[in-house]
Design goal:
The complex is a heterodimer of chains A (321) and B (304). Chain A is an alpha/beta fold and 321 residues long. In chain A, 42% of the residues lie in helices and 11% in strands. The longest helix of chain A is centred in the last third of the chain and has 19 residues. Chain A has a single domain, classed as Alpha-Beta Barrel (TIM Barrel). In chain A, 52% of the residues are buried. Chain B has a single domain, classed as Aldolase class I (TIM Barrel, Alpha-Beta Barrel), CATH 3.20.20.70. Chain B contains 11 helices and 8 strands. Chain B has an 8-stranded parallel β-barrel with strand order 1-2-3-4-5-6-7-8, surrounded by 8 helices. In chain B, strand 2, helix 2 and strand 3 form a beta-alpha-beta unit. Chain B is globular. The chains are: A alpha/beta (321), B alpha/beta (304). The interface between A and B is medium-sized, with 33 and 33 residues.
């Protein structure tokens, strides 16, 4: 596991980004037409919805946006739509993780040219890479771009052991001046602190952004925000949650976190199938899900609608676009 | 319904002589150290006390000895986990008769039982006595002992004397679901941290801690606990980072790591019982040197 750091190792001076990442940031789903083609107009509407409802940053296409099921061409076109729609109102992050590293490099080149503010990349998929292989993969992508780079830690998705340990984070900070943060989806106190205590000591502005909204446990220890799961359903709740965290109003934050955790449990089933299903009840139909994931059935949509009513979401959150 | 609030719970190690027998003379000294250094409650024998390496006779003797030594100065929580339901039930009854204040147990390890069987095991152990009952998540989760929020909820519905969950899983979602669902049924349902990562647990709603590192750094454990109790969670960050560093330092050496760190603090507790091995050299000296170099341990008690 970790090497204990008694003194912070020396990192190359950070290339400071022109923005600060903070709050419940939104990662839009990818709206699809009934024939499963990408609905780019819908994507623009989705992105605009998030921005006008308080998203402090926009990130696409995360797994929630079905990124593994999109072609390179669709990902590039989507990135262009996103950047144009956001129009510098908030920072934009483009996810470049893909099966082939050559594709990731291509997506990174494209994102920079298209005007993205930063990149998000992940440890190589589907091959159980060693720590050394993850290091070289991230360095290859990070040195291929001038943009600030975030990495995505998801041991749950990529297999136990395929993760960013404190030693790996330390090496990456030492090597990459444009390495500005981590999307952490370990959702685990010890794993989070392995990263946070090393990274924040070496690079004080390092942004640790939680996956989904499991933010309450890590916020007091230095997490700066999250990439939202339920912002397409309940943006008011997301914003209230972060405001409570900032005010150190832990009781309100707990009530928000408990409610968000309940919502996530609803959406977790074949994620993001149930999320898109629930969006229908909020007047924001983002279409079907590409196979092999199932599109939410009529019964599932009705069930989700009843649950949103019980959780008092329908009447307290915006309806329509 | 239970109102017993354990607070900051110290979890003493079990000392062994070179012939592998328990050194009860030294154990008395260890218990007195914890009482003198801020234990609100004492839990014996937890994982740090090598419970799985003790015989049935020894487990009962340790519980009985601790209760007699403590003499009611603080509550003593008896940890009775066992793969066999009947064995754990009988041990819980013994602990109640011996004067324990509460019972703690995790799911049965080794068997990989179905969820309903885990629930039944915990209900039987919990209902063996009228004492407050705490479910512990196991330190090793993949040894047949995995505990889900749904299982906890089932136990909460069935046990009147359920007091709460002691979480060592450190999983954010489990902690949040367990405490929020549990409190919907029982408003006084408690979440406690089973590790020294107190701040994340307290943020989610935790109100206490079973502190393995209280053997090494009882003052630091108390400071973090008090800040958590006052909900000064951001202010606790630096101390929590220090405690995390100490945890990582010691973790590599397992049971021997903890006892080596205690030795470095002037509290010789011998070696762990076999099959756990001594750290050996040079690892032992290296760990001792690292502990000695931690400035945040300078205020901690040395010796007994």
């Amino acid at each position: 596991m970790s090497t204990v750091l008694t003194e912070a190792p020396v990192a190359k001076p950070q290339k400071k980004p022109a923005f600060v990442l903070k709050g419940v940031m939104q990662a839009p789903v990818t709206p699809l037409h009934d024939d499963f083609s990408v609905d780019y107009e819908g994507l623009a509407k989705m992105v605009n919805f998030h921005v006008v409802n308080g998203a402090p940053a926009i990130a696409w296409p995360h797994h929630k946006a079905e990124s593994p099921n999109l072609t390179m061409e669709e990902r590039k076109k989507g990135a262009e739509v996103l950047i144009k729609t956001v129009a510098r109102r908030v920072p934009v992050s483009i996810f470049v993780g893909s099966l082939s590293e050559e594709d990731s490099l291509d997506l990174a080149r494209h994102a920079q040219k298209a005007g993205a503010d930063m990149l998000l990349t992940i440890s190589p998929y589907c091959r159980r890479p060693t720590q050394e292989e993850i290091f070289h993969s991230i360095v290859r992508i990070g040195t291929h771009t001038d943009l600030p780079v975030l990495t995505y830690n998801s041991p749950w998705r990529n297999g136990e052991g395929v993760e960013f340990t404190s030693e790996l984070v330390q090496r990456l900070i030492e090597r990459l001046p444009n390495y500005i943060g981590m999307k952490d989806a370990s959702f685990h106190s010890e794993k989070f602190m392995e990263i946070s205590r090393v990274a924040l000591r070496m690079r004080p502005g390092f942004s640790i952004i939680m996956g989904l909204e499991h933010l309450l446990a890590s916020y007091p220890l230095g997490a700066c925000g999250s990439f939202s799961s339920c912002g397409a359903i309940a943006p008011n709740l997301c914003n209230r949650f972060f405001a409570a965290l900032e005010a150190h109003d832990w009781e309100t934050a707990r009530q928000c976190q408990y409610k968000i955790t309940k919502l996530y449990r609803l959406f977790k089933d074949q994620y993001p199938s149930s999320l898109k299903g629930a969006m229908i009840s909020m007047g924001r139909n983002a279409g079907p899900i590409r196979p092999p994931l199932p599109t939410a059935s009529k019964e599932r949509v009705e069930f989700l609608c009843r649950q949103l009513e019980e959780l008092d979401v329908i009447n307290t959150e915006p309806h329509g676009w | 319904m239970s109102t017993f609030k354990p607070g900051l719970v110290h979890t003493p190690v079990t000392p062994f002589k070179t012939d592998q027998s328990i050194d009860f003379g030294l154990y008395a000294k260890i218990l007195e150290f914890h009482l003198k250094n801020g234990a609100d409650s004492i839990a014996v024998p937890m994982q740090q006390a090598e419970d799985v390496s003790l015989t049935e006779v020894e487990l009962r003797k340790v519980i009985e000895f601790a209760i007699r030594q403590v003499k009611g100065r603080v509550p003593v929580i008896a940890h009775v986990s066992d793969p066999g339901t009947g064995i754990a039930v009988e041990r819980a009854r013994f602990a109640e008769q011996a004067g324990a204040s509460a019972i703690a147990s995790h799911p049965p390890y080794f068997w990989h039982p179905r969820p309903a069987m885990v629930v039944e095991h915990l209900v039987q152990v919990g209902s063996a006595t009228r004492l407050p009952f705490f479910i512990c998540t196991p330190v090793v989760e993949d040894a047949g002992t995995h505990l889900t929020g749904e299982m906890v909820l089932e136990v909460v519905k069935r046990l009147d004397n359920i007091a709460g969950v002691v979480d060592s899983s450190m999983r954010f979602v489990f902690m949040a679901e367990t405490v929020s669902n549990g409190r919907e049924i029982r408003p006084d349902f408690q979440l406690l941290s089973g590790t020294d990562f107190m701040v994340p647990n307290a943020a989610v709603g935790g109100t206490g801690v079973f502190s393995p590192l209280s053997s090494v750094a009882p003052k630091l454990a108390r400071q973090i606990y008090e800040l958590c109790r006052k909900q000064q969670l951001v202010q606790a960050r630096k101390m929590q980072e220090d405690m995390a560093e100490l945890h990582h330092m010691i973790k590599k050496g397992g049971r021997a790591g903890l006892k080596t760190a205690m030795r470095a603090m002037g509290r010789e507790c011998g070696e762990p019982r076999l099959p756990a091995l001594s750290l050996g050299e040079p690892a032992m000296s290296q760990l001792a040197a690292r502990v000695a170099a931690c400035s945040y341990l300078s205020a901690e008690p040395r010796g007994w």
